[in-house]
Structure formats: C-alpha cells, structure tokens
Amino acid sequence: MFKNNVGSIDRIIRAVIGIAALVAFFLVPDAGWRWWLLIGIVPLATALMGSCPIYSILGLSTCPVKRA
C-alpha cells in the first residue's frame, strides 16, 4: 500500500511519543487542553505502518538504503 520510509529508530521514537501522549490523555481527565494529546494517535499510527505521508510528500526516508 504505502512504501516504507520510516527507519527502526524513527519508528521507536514515534511509538514512544505516541504512547506517552495517549497515556497523558487518560492521566489528566480534568484538563481542558487534554484533547490535544489525541494527536499522539498520528505518530503511533505511522510507527505501526512504517510509512509517513509527510516523508512521502517531501521525498524523505529514514530507512536504510538497500544495496543491489
């Protein structure tokens, strides 16, 4: 479907940030700004898929180069 353009270190960082934001969402139930923490779904989803649409648009990739 999408070409993998997210490397392993990048995926780990995205997963940690996404999970931390979602955990914080549930830990601060009374804060009015807590809905902004749902943005953590985006880095978590890109980590799980291994593909980032913004990287595709910009022509970037953090995956190691495959040699022929």
Distance between the termini: 23 Å
Tally of helical segments = 3
Shape: elongated
The chain-level structural class is: mainly alpha
Taking pLDDT < 50 over at least 5 consecutive residues as the criterion, the unreliable ranges are none
Kindly report the average pLDDT value: 91
- How many separate structural domains? 1
Strand content: under 5%
**Rg calc:** 14 Å
- Based on DSSP secondary structure assignment, what is the total number of beta strands? 0
The main β sheet shows up as: none
| Element string (H = helix, E = strand) | HHH
Residues in helices, as a percent range: 40-55%
Could you please describe the fold and organization of this structure?
This protein has one domain (8-58). 51% of the residues lie in helices and 0% in strands. It has 3 helices and no strands. The longest helix has 20 residues, at 8-27. The chain is elongated and about 50 Å long.
Give a quick summary of the entry.
Helices cover 51% and strands 0% of the residues.
Q: How would you summarize the topology of this molecule?
A:
Blueprint: H1 8-27, H2 41-49, H3 53-58
Helix pairs in contact: 1-2
List keywords for this structure.
single chain; 68 residues; mainly alpha; 3 helices; 51% helix; 0% strand
